[in-house]
Each structure stands twice: as C-alpha cells, then as structure tokens.
Design a protein that fits this description.
This protein is α/β, with parallel strands linked by helices. The protein is 32% helix and 20% strand. The protein contains 8 helices and 8 strands. Bound molecules: D-xylitol-5-phosphate and zinc ion.
Length: 215
C-alpha cells in the first residue's frame, strides 16, 4: 500500500486568519493543501480564486492542490498554474474537452487531475486515464464542507484501484468529502493515496492529533 497523504481542505478554515491556518496545518504534518475553487455555477457556492492561491503560495512549502469546481475549467487552468498550483483538478462533468484541458495542465508544468461527482460513473473518464496524474473521487456532492460521506464511494475507489492495476497506470487516487478517522483506514485499504479533509481537521483545535487520527 502507498503512503497515505493528507490534504487539509482550507474551506473549513477560519478565513479571517488564512495564513495562520495554513501554517498550523503545515506544522501539524499535512502533506498537501487542498483549495476548493467554486464559481457559484457548477456548484451552488462561491469561494476562492487564483488571487487567493497566489497570496498563500509564498507562505507555505505544501503543494497547492487546486480543486476546480467551475463550469468553464479551461479558462482557469492557466491562472491557477501561474498562482503556483502543483495539482490542478477539473471535473469530468464540467467540459466536453477534458482531453485538451488535461494536456494543457501538464504543459503548464502542473499535475493533471480529473474529478467525478458521486453520480458520475468511472466509465466517464476511461479515455483519459492514461493522461492524468490523479483521479479525485468525490464522496459528497460538491459545494460545501461538513457533509456526510456517501458510502458507495468506497466501492468506487476499490473499482478504480483495480482498473489502475489492470491498465498499469500510476495516477494517484484522492477522496474528498466526509472523510474522517472512521473511514480513512477503509479508504486507504481500498486504494486511496490522498485523503482530503476539511472539517475533520479544521474544526479540531489540535490539528496534529486530527491528522494523526486520519493516518
Ligand atoms: C466539497 C469540497 C471538499 C470539502 C470537504 O465540495 O470539495 O474539499 O471542503 O470538506 P469535509 O471534509 O468537511 O467534507
Ligand atoms: Zn475539494
């Protein structure tokens, strides 16, 4: 089994103290920093843009894991690459031009990720599995932190892990939504490499303890 990476989702942080929150989870042992980018169109919420990512970048060594929940992802990959993103993940449901945009992300020097909403089958991304560095399985309907984990996501992760084995691919499997210490072990065993956690980390006062519990 791969080493499990933990990516705190800034969505549940105290936004009036973003820099301190980032430094706190970095000290607490986070591996990546997950940024939830929402456009009020693809999802019913509006959050942060490339300006915020660029502002955070000089203050942390953590890779910025940018999750684009936007309707027109092609328009935003370059601004996020310039802002210092390490990973840029777009949604399979958001564009008919996934192949083009994923290649563009790699050309910009970032790792290319593709994400699936809970209702989207794995078959929707079959044709691009050879050109992605990461597949993000959404285990809640995207838009908000603090939602309940959708149980069928565990099976989806296991299926994706077996497809990865069958085709000899190396992409990472990331899971996002409702992740907690009660399901992290099962997700890692099913094949997840990266776990995103918002409330399970930021709503706890002792972030190091919260991250250790997830591991
Ligand atoms: C949901 C976001 C998640 C969210 C996770 O649309 O993509 O990253 O912040 O939050 P929790 O861990 O609280 O479910
Ligand atoms: Zn996310």
């Amino acid at each position: 089994m791969s080493k499990l990476l933990i990516a705190p989702s800034l969505l549940s942080a105290d936004f009036s103290r973003i820099r301190d929150e980032v430094l706190d989870v970095e000290r607490a042992g986070a591996d990546w920093l997950h940024l939830d980018v929402m456009d009020g169109h693809f999802v019913p919420n509006l959050t942060i843009g490339p300006i915020v990512a660029a502002a955070i970048k000089p203050h942390t060594k953590l890779p910025l894991d940018c999750h684009l929940m936007v309707s027109d992802p092609g328009k935003w990959v370059e601004p996020f690459a310039k802002a210092g993103a390490s990973v840029i993940t777009i949604h399979a449901e958001a564009s008919p031009h996934l192949d083009r945009i994923l290649r563009q992300i790699r050309q910009l020097g970032c790792q290319a990720g593709i994400s699936l909403n809970p209702a989207t089958p794995l078959s929707a991304i079959e044709e691009v599995l050879g050109i992605v560095d990461l597949v993000l399985v959404m285990s809640v309907n995207p838009g908000f932190g603090g939602q309940k984990f959708i149980d069928s996501s565990l099976d989806k992760v296991a299926k994706l892990s077996s497809i990865r084995r069958d085709i000899g691919a190396k992409f990472l499997i990331e899971v996002d939504g409702g992740v907690s210490a009660s399901n992290s072990k099962a997700l890692h065993s099913a094949g997840a490499d990266v776990l995103v956690a918002g409330s399970a980390i930021f709503k706890e006062t002792d972030r190091a303890k919260a991250i250790t519990a997830l591991r």
